[in-house]
Amino acid sequence: MKILFVSDIHGSAGAARTVLEKAEAMQPDAVALLGDALYHGPRNPLPADYDPKGVAALLNGWKNRIVAVRGNCDSEVDQMLIEYPMMSDFAWVLAGGRRLFLTHGHRYSPDNLPPLADGDVFVYGHTHVPQTGTAALAGGGVVHLWNPGSCSLPKSGYAASYAVLEDGVFRVCGLDGSVLLTDTLG
């Protein structure tokens, strides 16, 4: 199964268009949208090509493949433009025999993990900083931590990014296609 992960679009039609062009070329089985799709929020600057309605139209073109969760900048009024469910705080996806817990990162985070089992994968956005790594579970075992970064408003000196999971390999990629980080499921 091939999954494209995107987070923190924040209404940037240019960033959404670029990521969805990548999706068109790679034809993923699913697009995991990790929140903050349309609105930039009060703490963020306006992203380039700010066009929430345009982003909604672009994403709606992928509605049959999108699995989405709500970010802290998403609201119920956004659901009026979006043609797929996007108001859940989390979603589970099964890929390659692994359970992936998808969330935005403002309710659950690496510092506040939900109940997970050994080998699960915690996938989140919110920080605008890509990450790959692991965390030990209190009861024993290890979970993978993945963050695709932000495709529109990256932070900490990282490039705008998205991520792909294919054949057990998670790759965070810059919008230019360069690989920024990788993690492999054993």
From TrEMBL:
Keywords: Metal-binding
Enzyme category, top tier: hydrolase
EC code: 3.1.4.-
One Pfam family in the UniProt entry: Metallophos_2
Any one Gene Ontology molecular-function term assigned to this protein's record: hydrolase activity
Named cofactor requirement(s): a divalent metal cation
Residue span(s) of domain Calcineurin-like phosphoesterase: 1-166
Highest taxon in the source lineage: Bacteria
Keyword Disulfide bond: no
CDD domains, per database record: MPP_YfcE
InterPro entries according to UniProt: Calcineurin-like_PHP_lpxH (IPR024654), Metallo-depent_PP-like (IPR029052), MPP_YfcE (IPR041802), Phosphodiesterase_MJ0936/Vps29 (IPR000979)
Protein family: Belongs to the metallophosphoesterase superfamily. YfcE family.
Protein name according to UniProt: Phosphoesterase
Organism whose genome encodes this protein: Oleidesulfovibrio alaskensis (strain ATCC BAA-1058 / DSM 17464 / G20)
